DNA sequence: AGGGCTATGTAACAACCGGTAACGGCGCTG
DNA sequence: CAGCGCCGTTACCGGTTGTTACATAGCCCT
């Protein structure tokens, strides 16, 4: 990658100078900016890879600027603040900052953050490394594959055990397709080391299904989502909508 | 740039111990194995980058084992033997060994061979690079390998003990790759080799993991960084960005 | 409809696994 | 020598998961 251009936005001239200099020593093209006008000038004029934005700009509110910039351009932003309280941090994220760092900061820390954000940005633009998290939705339930989180229609988080989660994952990936116990066992890697038949694996799957039902079916006795296909196995009989993220 | 895993196969406990220790000092994850069964356990379980195989195993014939392994898996093998006769060397090559070294061997020589075979296999040459100072960043944390410093997302320095630091280092070098307790122990050089199972090493790793968690996890009860892989071991499940320095 | 067979649901149990508090040994430092 | 921090061991607890046994439901045949 070419030398990254970093906009250093801070109303304190001394801070600007210091940060700018430090970044330059570390190979970046640092562009100091004292006001939002300065920022816009640079954004209009040319390429900017990252904005280091101080939360407290004399007259202007950095958070607002951040939100505004975010809504207009897709430039990574790291918020900088003298306030390290957690809620500040959260606010920073809410307005769309990519990261947050407290002042006074450790140079190593700053550099690490900058590089992290830059490489993240680069990665997202190259199709190769895209790591997509999927979210599945069915009958009001939401299953976030990455975090392994399951939310009930009421929005309450349900904790599934590892096995239950794996089962759900398998099912969700094959909606409306009847799966035999053997297939499920294979997907869950249950077999054990003695190449057991599905029967020897035995009722493990049945029991597991029961346990999952007890957690995600409104009335486990009359399952609507995880249905039994008698003589065959089980079907996930809900429509699933998938969202990449 | 993962740390290479080297299986040290020798029926003589003292030799195993010595070689293992030497390799560990030079940055490898050395896994001692006394029998073919041990070898298979490791091969089944996980990735092994290289096997150092003694020709004379008490009951078994190392050459046969070598041939057998070769026919099954594509793992580089270096044969080790007390007999330096040429025909032995030839035999070693015939059964598929990548290199051959006579006992007693010069440590430097061993290391050279190991590196050669590893790089031929286009594996990491981290045996060499490992001395580089690196800074790792994950979830806002910064770990400076040279100074052994760890900074929290808030920029506060956290003091880890020697062991905790070593554990972190091992994990950070293998993000998203589940490590067994045994592998971790090997990397930390915990047991030496007394033919102990991972169980004999006992809960040391578990406890250590717990201690590290209590320092770097926001909520140690629900670890986001250092996750448990039930029945397997532990995974460092954060994206890590690395900077050479 | 009813008998008999098989498939499935599930409660109870036991084995196993991982988290962790507590303890004690060890080495270092003052 | 006392105090302290580090670290492996142990024991206990709680959660997970496969097994078993028994109850029930579904299906086929007469």
From TrEMBL, chains A, B:
SMART domains: REC, Trans_reg_C. GO terms for biological process: regulation of DNA-templated transcription. GO terms for molecular function: phosphorelay response regulator activity; transcription cis-regulatory region binding. Residues 133-238 form the OmpR/PhoB-type domain. Keywords: DNA-binding, Phosphoprotein, Transcription, Transcription regulation, Two-component regulatory system. The modification 4-aspartylphosphate is found at residue 54. Pfam families: Response_reg, Trans_reg_C. Gene3D superfamilies: 3.40.50.2300, Winged helix-like DNA-binding domain superfamily/Winged helix DNA-binding domain (1.10.10.10). The keyword Lipid biosynthesis does not apply. This is Regulator.
